[in-house]
């Protein structure tokens, strides 16, 4: 779920989430992998050192992307496998993501259900299904995400929470690096996003990320990134470093 930018961690990602794809005349394939010292998603710490591969195809604004996170040092961390179907036209995009976690517990029953990928029952699934919608205004983009099925969190009354998350992103250039500032939160009570103690609106993701290409040869460079991620709701802060390999 996630880029860096989870319950995965639940995203890129996620691509954090769902990537916007410009209209193309040919089918394009994306193959990439991020290596990170910490997996932090939407203000939540989802694991330690991990490799996060991406495989996607896109055609005329329609894309299907597989994203995963595999722990490299801590075997207790959950493995994640997300599938995102998205459509983008101009600066507008929508999508649906299926998040799966190998060690997930069902929010309703508390039972461990992550060892069964093809289980989709209300009390036995480790999948969480999320819809998203967003628009890029240029200086700032805004996205909204809502869980609509699967292993969603619960309200204070024990009903399905339809857990939601919103995010503002502002990219900019400074000191020869590409930067991005993020502000994210939950509009109402949610068990996700490190906002467990919030009975209503809460800010759970304030972060800034810098990316710079490191030239290896005349035809090959490696994007290196670092990010400061904070979660005011849970009083947590993280410093993340990583790099991306892509042919």
UniProtKB/TrEMBL annotation:
Assigned keywords, A-Z: Signal
PROSITE patterns from the UniProt entry: PROKAR_LIPOPROTEIN
Signal sequence region: 1-23
Name of protein: Uncharacterized protein
